[in-house]
TrEMBL record, chain A:
Record PANTHER family: ALIPHATIC SULFONATES IMPORT ATP-BINDING PROTEIN SSUB 2 (PTHR42788:SF19), TAURINE IMPORT ATP-BINDING PROTEIN-RELATED (PTHR42788)
Name of the protein in its database record: Putative hydroxymethylpyrimidine transport system ATP-binding protein
InterPro entries: AAA+_ATPase, ABC_transporter-like_ATP-bd, ABC_transporter-like_CS, ABC_transporter_ATP-bind, P-loop_NTPase
Coiled coil: none
Xref: PROSITE patterns: ABC_TRANSPORTER_1, ABC_TRANSPORTER_2
Source organism (scientific name): Insolitispirillum peregrinum
Family classification: Belongs to the ABC transporter superfamily.
TrEMBL record, chain B:
Topology versus the membrane: Multi-pass membrane protein
Stretches assigned to the ABC transmembrane type-1 domain: 54-234
Homology family: Belongs to the binding-protein-dependent transport system permease family.
Protein name as it appears in the record: Putative hydroxymethylpyrimidine transport system permease protein
CDD domains xref list: TM_PBP2
Domain of life: Bacteria
GO cellular component terms given for this protein: plasma membrane
Subcellular location: Cell membrane
UniProt keywords, alphabetically: Cell membrane, Membrane, Transmembrane, Transmembrane helix, Transport
Listed transmembrane segments: 61-80, 92-114, 120-139, 175-195, 215-233
PROSITE patterns to which the protein is assigned, alphabetical: ABC_TM1
One Gene Ontology biological process: transmembrane transport
Chief subcellular location: membrane
Source organism (scientific name): Insolitispirillum peregrinum
Length: 257, 250
């Protein structure tokens, strides 16, 4: 491992205020506030269709037109160009090699690609020998590793991840969680997931999104419990039960408050 | 590979067999339908003549593909880049396709003369539409996830077009090209029928008028061979150049 890739940009904290956001004519968020503490992992948990991804997309500036929201950063500068994005699909371009895929950002911005850094990142995700392969020659886990390397290559202080590991088999998923936790340490991360175990392993703050109307509640975590947590930690099992119960017993959609 | 050759060989023999049966059933009237053997003999005996005319037709087809392909690709890029243009020009494109190319063939000969130019124009016209629509379709169907990623990465409209939308649309363009390669010979031959002094279409018309039906069939055979070869080469080339086109991503 080289030192070059470890040096990360200074941590950046965020507060997102979604004043009024509609999607397909239906109000999704009204006066919802999301805090992302600087340099920490926030895991956003919720059932399907509750609007987790839509909330993340506001931060990625991928919001539907006409959305009324505001992002306040800890250094008061705009968030534009300081975000990296990782989705459930690896989004690798099938006509490019792994190396060319992870340097895509530079080419899109007409900047010279730092191939030395790219090579070192590929080494860190364990794909050093695969740099000239095409994505269709990789396994699902390897492809997601390449996507992680591409995310790291962007070297942004804020990383938004939308269910990045949900398509992987359980063991590969655990390995990817550990790898991501190591490599994205001290960044401001928002991880959207529907997997309570994933949220509990990685989250330094675990938020549950319920609705409609959408509201966020923080799930309290035991003190002195640093992430990433070992998968065989007994506290994880207890917490997972509590969290699942919270998800199952949330107010059903459309109920009168 | 050998298996495929055997398949091709078997289907060719089967076709010849059916042809022979039809020939026998029709009462062996060589001036209506020559036997496969007679056609083949004529093809070999008149190889020089056929080759000369095939060269003309082949050149017309290739130049037509080049011309129609380039203009089609340029049109699709232009239409994909400017939405207002798309609103105004796509209907025009569709209407233009409703006019049969056959109907304007005499006009093209009148305007561009008896030579190759009018045939190249015919072939270009006939392939322009499949190329343009296939490529435009590919350009407007880029996977939304890729566009999201590119936007977060700070790509501009042009770099996204260059690095994502165009390469992503190449398999569609390839599919359009395969259609184009199939119809391009029609354009060239119709052009030759309307007015020319060389080419396989001319040779067929000429032979027909002189009741040399065997020569006409031989010309037809060469034309079919030309078209099949062209299609096969295109298919191999696409497989070589776009090895990922069969893989489903997104």
């Amino acid at each position: 491992m080289t030192v070059a890739s470890v040096a990360s940009p200074p941590p950046l904290g965020l507060t997102l205020t979604a004043r009024h956001v509609t999607y397909d004519g239906i109000t999704l968020f009204r006066d919802l506030t999301l805090d992302l503490p600087a340099g920490h992992w926030t895991c956003l948990l919720g059932i399907s269709g509750v609007g987790k991804s839509s909330l993340l997309r506001l931060l990625a500036d991928l919001a539907p037109a006409g959305s009324d929201y505001h992002v306040q950063t800890s250094d008061n500068r705009p968030l534009t160009d300081r975000v990296a994005y990782m989705a459930q699909q690896d989004l690798l371009l099938p006509w490019l090699s792994v190396l060319d895929n992870i340097t895509l950002g530079a080419r899109l911005r007409r900047q010279p690609a730092d191939t030395a850094r790219a090579a070192s990142l590929l080494e860190q995700v364990g794909l050093a020998d695969f740099r000239h392969r095409r994505p269709d020659q990789l396994s699902g886990g390897q492809r997601q590793r390449a996507a992680l390397a591409r995310t790291l290559m962007e070297d942004r202080p804020v990383v938004l991840m939308d269910e990045p590991f949900s398509a992987l088999d359980p063991v590969t998923r655990l390995q990817m969680q550990d790898l991501a936790a190591t490599l994205l340490d001290r960044r401001t991360v928002l991880l959207v997931t529907h997997d309570p175990l994933e949220a509990l392993r990685l989250g330094e703050q675990v938020l549950v999104l319920t609705g409609p109307p959408a509201s966020l509640t923080s799930h309290p975590l035991p003190a002195d419990w640093p992430a990433p947590r070992a998968v065989d930690d007994p506290r994880l099992t207890n917490q997972q039960g509590a969290l699942l119960a919270r998800l199952v017993h949330q107010r059903p959609a459309g109920a009168v408050s | 590979m050998i298996r495929r050759l055997i398949h091709i060989l078997v289907s060719m023999v089967m076709t010849a067999l059916l042809w022979q049966i039809a020939y026998l059933a029709a009462g062996q009237q060589d001036y209506l339908l020559p036997s496969p053997l007679k056609t083949l003999t004529t093809a070999v005996l008149k190889a020089d003549l056929l080759a000369r005319h095939a060269l003309t037709t082949g050149a017309e087809i290739l130049l037509g593909l080049l011309g129609g392909g380039l203009v089609g690709v340029a049109s699709a890029l232009l239409l994909a880049s400017f939405a207002p243009l798309r609103r105004w020009l796509v209907p025009v494109l569709v209407i233009s396709q409703a006019i049969p190319v056959f109907a304007i063939a005499p006009l093209l000969v009148l305007w561009l003369g008896y030579g190759m130019a009018s045939k190249v124009a015919m072939a270009s016209l006939i392939i322009y539409f499949p190329i343009t629509t296939a490529f435009l379709d590919g350009l407007s169907r880029t996977a939304p996830g890729w566009l999201d990623l590119a936007q977060v990465m700070g790509g501009s409209r042009w770099t996204v077009l260059r690095h994502i939308r165009i390469p992503a649309a190449l398999p569609s363009l390839g599919a359009g090209l395969k259609v184009a390669v199939g119809v391009a010979p029609i354009g060239a031959v119709i052009g030759e029928w309307v007015g020319s002094s060389t080419g396989l279409g001319y040779l067929m018309l000429h032979a027909n008028a002189r009741m040399q039906v065997d020569l006409m069939f031989a010309a037809l055979l060469v034309l079919a061979g030309l078209a099949i070869t062209l299609f096969w080469v295109t298919d191999r080339l696409l497989a070589r150049l776009l090895p990922w086109r069969a893989t489903t991503n997104e």
